[in-house]
Amino acid sequence: MQMFEESRKLRKEFEVWIQDFRKPLWDYCLKLTKNVWDAEDLFQDTLLKSFSHLNYLYQTVSPKSYLFRMATNSWINTVHKQKRAVTVGDEVFETIPAQKTVDPFELAEGFQRMNERLTDLQQAAFILTKGFGFTNKETAEFLSLTEGAVKSLMKRAKDNLNQENQLNIEPNKPVTPLMTAYMEAFNQRNPDKIAELLTEQATMDIVGVSQEYGKDIIRKSSLADWSKDPAVMSGDWILIDGSPVFVVWTDAHALNTIIRIETSDDKITKIHDYYFSQELHDYIASQFNRTSGQNGTFWDEKWKSSI
């Protein structure tokens, strides 16, 4: 138990170290993946890998450089494995503080022509320099390249750029009987009914924080805590970027949490609860022109007693 407690303390120190770069990192992940769920997966994977690889560092590094390099490498590895084309849009750049002035004509021309003809590194180099305003030197550091190599990538990338990206939200969502049962149980604040929908070996993934294994543990832990939450909330299913998502709002119309489920044979095998994914919350709430509940991350001071 002492080892577990020490690891949580180290994770808290890590989160303090990177806190100023979480939002730019999440936006960068969205630019790379062009899908909100792939972006969140890449973001969480980057945080986990960045934390777990700290013991391999024997020199001082900047958190920004470290995180962006880790995200870029993880994304390129994923694309190579999946062998899928990845394109990049431009609407999120408006929310990112520019580190230097970007020529709007050059940026517009670039985004109109970016497509699958770009290599992964070309896309990453273009996003970092033209979208985020990083210098060639900083971009070279993120990508583990020389400045000359970055300049070469940029020269080739400028001829092959694509159109803008938008979050795809569909109000006419497909709802299965299992999804309806989950929605009814949730809105009735009934943990027992939700537990009845789970397989015996179901998993609860509180994204970026913890996982619970088995229906009984989930019922006694996260579902019990949720049933005691005094906040007034209700949810509904919406199709976002191709995935049915259970979006939960408070009575003040603020986003409370986002939930996705995996199913098999009319039972839930896994629940992904994005309660502590603040960057994801902010982005999705903005698409509905609503506010996001400031849950923060699990490592924030207000959750100190839970760590």
From TrEMBL:
Gene3D superfamilies assigned to the protein according to its UniProt record, in alphabetical order: 1.10.1740.10, 3.10.450.50, Winged helix-like DNA-binding domain superfamily/Winged helix DNA-binding domain
Annotated GO biological process: DNA-templated transcription initiation
Domain RNA polymerase sigma-70 region: 18-84
GO molecular function: DNA binding; sigma factor activity
Domain RNA polymerase sigma factor 70 region 4 type: 111-160
Pfam families according to UniProt: Sigma70_r2, Sigma70_r4_2
InterPro entries, per database record: NTF2-like_dom_sf, RNA_pol_sigma-70-like, RNA_pol_sigma-70_dom, RNA_pol_sigma70_r2, RNA_pol_sigma70_r4_t2, RNA_pol_sigma_r2, RNA_pol_sigma_r3/r4-like, WH-like_DNA-bd_sf
The keyword Transmembrane is assigned to this record: no
Keywords, alphabetical: DNA-binding, Sigma factor, Transcription, Transcription regulation
Self-association and partners: Interacts transiently with the RNA polymerase catalytic core formed by RpoA, RpoB, RpoC and RpoZ (2 alpha, 1 beta, 1 beta' and 1 omega subunit) to form the RNA polymerase holoenzyme that can initiate transcription.
Annotated family: Belongs to the sigma-70 factor family. ECF subfamily.
Alphabetical list of PANTHER family matching this protein: RNA POLYMERASE ECF-TYPE SIGMA FACTO, RNA POLYMERASE SIGMA FACTOR HI_1459-RELATED
Protein name listed in UniProt: RNA polymerase sigma-70 factor
Organism of this sequence: Bacillus oleivorans
